[in-house]
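User: What would this chain look like folded?
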Amino acid sequence: MTEKRIPSPVDAVAEAHVEKSLALSPSLALYLGLDGAEGFDDYSPAGLAAKHDLTVQTLQRLAEAEQTDELDDVDLVTLDAMRERLSVDRDHYEAGLEHSSLNVIASPLQEIRDAFDLLPTQTIENWETVGTTMAAVPTSVAGYQESLSLARSRGQVAARIQIERVIAQAEDLAEPGSSFDKLVAGATTVPDSLRLQLESHAEAARGSFGRLAQFLRSELLPDAPENEACGREIYALCSRDFLGAEVDFEETYAWGLDELARIDAEQREVAAMIDPDADLFDVMDQLNRDPRRTLHGTEALREWMQQVADEAITELGRSHFDIPEPVRTIECMIAPSTTGGIYYTGPTDDFSRPGRMWWSVPEGVTEFATWQEKTTVYHEGVPGHHLQIGQATYVSDTLNRWRRLMCWVSGHGEGWALYAERLMADLGYLDDPADRLGMLDSQRLRAARVVLDIGFHLGLEAPKSLGGGIWDREKAWQFLTDNVAMDRSFLAFELDRYLGWPGQAPSYKIGQRLWEQFRDEAKTQQGTDFDLKAFHTKALRLGSVGLDTLGRAMRR
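Assistant: Here's the prediction, encoded as structure tokens.
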């Protein structure tokens, strides 16, 4: 553990912001695993305005705290990071993006649905919390509808396809036997009175999503545009949000195309080691049919994930990384939802709930290829998100809670995880040509997303392989199927995700690019004194911050 640091006036501002944020956002408290956390956020215009007011007030308090003469390096990073993050929040609110939030993966519907995955159910008290949390769903959903109505009055409505997909998600949640009923069915040891309450709350929650589906169909869908491209102005806001940095979109688009070609060439070299007479995608098909590299069923997937994650922690903790004891535990889980997403949830502040890797397996998918997914475990586990988030959580004697628990920047976090995938290959953990091909396939997907996302939303010239012209959904699908060896059910969801959540998908590869630039800068500056392990330790102990903030902190 690092030496105890005396909290500063800047830390006091950050801690006050955390406390007020928790009061306004029960879902944040649920995510952080705090005792007494229950209910959901107020997604109504009034609720969103209250969060915005807090953002503005905290920015003012930061400006006042900055006037002190006793700022240390930790304070400098906190000021830089909070100003950057809160300014993004302010600008999003003022642009109306909070009120109009609707997409297939990261809008209030999914936030409400997925929060139940994190609720413990071991005790009667746990089930009581489930009940009160579920009881709050109808009010939150109704508030969400109010905000969507306000956004519609301003001419801000999500694209038709996104609304149709979300209607389907809402209808699934409204059906008897949905995830709410499945959760309550697990309450087999509670008193009858509590079980009846849970069943009533589940029915009310299902009803609220049924009303949401009807609202979306009758009120929003008629005004929905066909065009899914958000345009440059909105894209610039979204990109800042996900990167914590500003980039040249045209230069990054061209770089993405070059990176895609480079990865393709490397993939073909590796594929030739496996079968020199077969084409790249034929080799991938061979690997998918190889029984030695196939897992059958979700329990086999979970057990394999856990084994790979545990081995990585043991091996890397001996040599390449400082891994504190509490961070040496990760739980690999199969998520109750069936969206196809793979994600990580961090540990509680006291590590009583460990970090967890979740796999949301689509219905009907029963086989999994280890050659593709080994790199995914490194991405979500160690040295990826688990080490990154766990390390920041661990340094409680140095970082305030906003730095440890609240600040998350996709380009920093996902960029690090993609950096970690390539690092594991460089360290020799993906020397099996098939596993290395899986890592390259992951990298190729992320490079393709840079091209597709920027090109589509900014209306840039499509590659010649697509016939040129302006990007559209048909070209985007062809581009994905030409470049990504992924099950089509997964890939269809991925396309919906990119087109409805602009700026997020490129943050992985752009983030990796910036992480590698910062590392190479440090190598150049330090020469023979450069220590990769020390570089990683210093960077991870900063917590998740915007990439411009990270660059300034690492150079300081």
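The chain has two domains: 9-228, 239-508. If you want, I can go into more detail on any region.
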